[in-house]
Amino acid sequence: MKATAEDFLPLADVAARAVAGPRGRHAALIEDAFQVMVETPGGGVRFTGDGPGRARARRTVETLAERALQGLEVTEGDVRTAILQARTSAVRGVRPAMPVGRRGAVAPKTEAQARYLDLLAHHDLVFGIGPAGTGKTFLAVAHGVAMLSRGEVDRLVITRPAVEAGERLGFLPGDLKEKVDPYLAPIWEALSDLMGREALDRRRDRGEVEVAPIAFMRGRTLAHAYVIVDEAQNATRLQMKMILTRLGEGARMAVTGDPSQIDLPSLRDSGLAHAVSILDGVEGVAVARFSAADVVRHPLVERIVRAYDADAAQSGGPR
Description:
The protein is of the alpha/beta class. It has helices at 13-20, 25-34, 51-69, 76-92, 111-122, 136-149, 176-195, 197-205, 237-244, 271-279, 299-315; strands spanning 5-10, 37-39, 44-49, 100-101, 104-105, 125-129, 155-160, 209-213, 225-229, 252-257, 285-289.
């Protein structure tokens, strides 16, 4: 690596240690990302390399240092996220918008996630499509929670079809709420994680947060609300048209789903792919596409997704 110049960023020891990481692992990640040398000689961080590389490495370190000075843990995942943010800011001139939950900023972990958050911030209707584990729903919920917290919307409405129950729904014990709650549990878990249980309960009691099956949306106009349609691959074409036309004044919407996991009796009935095909390119509409490379769960999940995709491509059957 040819060293063309040096920069020095003064930092408190706690921040410098967090930047270096265990056995220098964090610094090594930054060096590999921007082709610079990162050293922590004491009192700060020294960057050696070309101008653009030093600037991006510095932005990365500043992000990590800010986190460390807040008393938060700096993990390898945080380093990768900060690197991604620095790359994105270099291309667009600004950092991608990041919603803030009770545990701090919810940062993208892949380039696709960063683009997704950017689209959510700048479009009235965003489709997020791709395999499970890519953060489609969680990031949409985080964005909605942030908008609600900032007062940009009056309500957060999250809906999904209870298709998994099918005709078996009537055989489950309890009233209607008890029958459908198991299919809405992942949403409540995400909301609780982002907002905290007490804050969520307060907003739910005030009608500011609503989670309900798609069937409950019929006939309503959702004004000044952020609407998330989850598991949208299991919404029929008629249901999809119905929910998309619920948007009222000052409302925004995110529609998420995995076209490879359709539980409807007929794959052709799914409204997600159909909606994307006719609305992609319409003013105010954006589509974010995720792949197996964006899976942020256990590393094995990405390999499982790739295996199923390969099998589907070979057999020509439904994915």
